[in-house]
Sequence to fold (326 residues):
Amino acid sequence: MKFRVLAILIGVLFAGTLSAQTLTDVINEFNSGVEKLNGQEYVVALEHFNQVLTMAEVVGDEANDMKAQAEKQIPATYYRQATTFMKRKQYDNAIPYLENTVETATLFGNNEEISKKATGYLPQLYVREGNTQRKNKSYDDAVAYFDKALAMNPNLYQACQGKGMVYLEQDETEEMLKCFANAKEGAMSKNNTKAIEQINGVIDSYYNKFIMEEVGAIDPEENDYTYVVEACDNALAANPNNPRALYNLAMVSNKSDQSEKAIEYAQKALQYEKETIWLSAINFELGSAYQSTKQYDEACEALQKVTEDPFLTRAEKKIDIVGCDY
Fold:
């Protein structure tokens, strides 16, 4: 029974404390928040402003003006804390404050301009954090950040690119290609050829390892190139301009006495290849194909562009056979 009386007394005292709060108390609490805000103590300032809202509910209508002022300060304070973190390049810390900026500005129906700025920053920061999580191999977290970015900006191709990289590292080919296709489409709409080249380079590297495995597994006695062709076809389905796939198809075509096809593949490969040794490899196959079709001038022109061994030594022998003029 004593416990019950004690509980009743505590309740009465607590209610008395709340009812004793006045407009002056609310104003003082708000001023404390402003003081901490000016001192860049944003977390403490937010505590004061939120306390103003609680106290204003107790005081009643006469505190409505102070409540409105606190509601206006809360999103602005979140935003100032976010920008502080961004200036320090602590982007992961900035994200929740930007999110709270948008959330509270929407809740209170104010700070539209600040909310718009925060909304503008968030998608890019989500992409940045997604890439960080990917590098840390936290793939689920990475995808979650990329999805957040796309939810805010469906045209943000960098987020699609990031997701593609996650699926690449997880060897989920179908999802990888889907994301990379979306990323390339977005990059194309922005005329970002560099991004498209970068994505194609990643795709090519992924498929080229399979091509090289199949080339290395060829039985020299059987000369069965079925799996090499299949690997090349898969690579070209993902990127029709993969120069290594085109080169290997030119090589297989020459070995299969399909010189016209070899010429076609080699010519296209030359349009996209940039590495010197591979340019030599392609020109060797092109020169060999021209030699087989008795197009000797073209054969000489291609063979004389071979500058790197082991292709150079082989090209020089063919040059002597064809009788090219140096």
